[in-house]
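Researcher: Structure for this, please.
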Amino acid sequence: MKKASFWKTFFIVCLIVLFFTGVIAAYLQNLSKSLPPVSQLVEYELKMGTKIYDRDGNLVKIFASENRRDVRLSEISDTLKNAFIAIEDANFWNHNGIDFYAILRAVKANLLSRDIAQGASTITQQLARDMFLSRKQTMKRKFKEMLLAFKIERTFSKEQILEMYLNKTYLGGGNYGVESAAQNFFGKSADEITPAESALIARLPQAPTYLNPKTNLETVLKRSKDVLYRMYQLGFITLDTYFEASRDTIKIKQRKQKKEPAGYYFEYIRKHIEENYGTSALYNGDLRVYTPVDYDLTVYADSVLNDKLINFEKKMEYDVKYNDFPADTVDFDTKYVQGGCYAIDPNNGYVRLMIGGRNFNHSKFNRMLQKPGRQPGSAIKPIVYTAALENSFTPATMINDLPLVFIQNDTVFWKPQNYSGKNYGLTPVRTALQHSRNIPTIRIINEISPQEVVKYARRFGIESYLPPVLSLGLGSAIVRPAELITSYSVLANGGEQVDPIYIRRIEDASGEILEQHFPSRTRKINKQLAFMTTDLMRDVVDRGTAAGIRWRGFRLPAAGKTGTTDDFGDAWCIAFTRRLVLGIWVGFDDNISLGEGQAGAYVAVPPWPYIMKRAVHNSSPKDSTGKPIIDEELYEFKKPKGIVTREISNSTGLLAKEFETDTRKEYFISGTEPTIISDSLGYNFGPLGAQDLDKDTLYIHMEDQDWYNK
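Model: Predicted structure, token format:
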């Protein structure tokens, strides 16, 4: 009975094994039909990389495998061939495409470590995967890889397989194949490199981007020691050669890189593609990326910015050696005066220009986008004055600019000053912004509250943390330059915020759209308020701190603001037309002073008019001679309904009396205009109420302020 039961069980087990064997065989046979012909390996060509197009549809950049040189196996040193075999596939010459012993060893190691500690892909499998399959870790892909490896082994000799692998494997830095890597990293042919250099190259397939010897040499050298030891274990090198190679000094060849003005813009796109579609898609996916970048404007702006800052460095007698910076660095602190430009179309959010530093090869750090950011200085004041105009202030409101002393707990804790160190007495709001007076700005913030200013900054798109303090209006917070410059678009397009767009669309090789971005506008303030602040800022450009824009030749309607921090560590000029917002920042990476008195008006303004003139030229139709046809009507800031004009007394801010000569025409949002005619006793103090004009100093106790107690 027991004997019959045994044979019955044995028979059932055999049937089950045969059934699953048949299922697996059928699955593998069906899977095999979907594999590409192995003969394609010989003719295999790398796919094109990602192509970048500018706003006019011109091809301006390709992210691709730019370095590839195929060589015969006889032109590759035995040491280099053995280095790859030692670390990638020690049993290469003996297996038939799959190393089952290596698989069992890897399974054991992975079970012991409870992680994927080892792989077991042979060189033949890696060749199959890299040429025809994805790197996605699935059982289906693994089975395909094994089947294709068997086919390759039956079709080609071991020498042919090794030659194809060594010519086609990706080794980082845009290098495909050992000859390209040897030339690029060491300036030698693949048959000339040393054992130590061979071990380094053989280590690169493990993580070709991370283990780039030009950016991470120490880590690569450390890991290449494992290759040398494995070569010794397998008898590829002697013990003496192992010790000698382990102590060998490796020098990486540094290529002098061509300066790329649009490098920061391209780097933003590169990161986006790599993070969302993968490294393989970036370099081999034949993607097409259509951007709004104005490449001509970028090249021109980079030249102007550098010329102006070189002149500034000479004037300040700074000792700068630009050639001290090697290629392929990612330094943040460059030790010379840095600068950046950012331009966005306020109508649609298209970013036409982004220069994150003076030389992308010296420093990959994008000062326009990346944290920690910079202090905006007075460049944040337009937000303050917008909040003021919606809180009962008008351009004609008079503010007594006199020394301020803030008292907290019976102790003096702040005595702010104007940039000039002087006080100017009764000052209209318009003049206060025009000349960037600090005392009137602080009095406005104290009246409407710092919390109100923060609220408006958020409406303008400022996302960085802004502490609700009185010094906020002087630019004491930290913001990213791009977000500050973009915030001005709310004013430039009549009160609507736009989201920055760096990529219009991405297409794959067949033309299918993978990603597309459309303009998005959200109303943040009404048209009347946007017009009023813009008109105040036109005075800044026409006759205020940014007047250098005018006497340097830019004549079209423009509005803007300069900015300078207390210690002259940051200099700004952000100004706009109806067609473009352009911001320029200048400063040192380590926040040291640009020099006493080196304000935004003297450091950041000079490049602005030249760059904006080029932008206008590029955006305008041309006549038969190539001269731009500029329609000035397209640039005029149009007065919306609900704005009224009144003749105002400059001395009181009230309606001008008959025969008064010191007057001006002033804009008001309907309903906020003064109704009282000026006389010798009255002033337009607005929400500040009666002010003590006979006081030499105004003492403000924090405990008495409503916003402080909240």
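Researcher: Any notable elements?
Model: Confidence is low (pLDDT under 50) at residues 22-28, 113-118. The radius of gyration is 34 Å.
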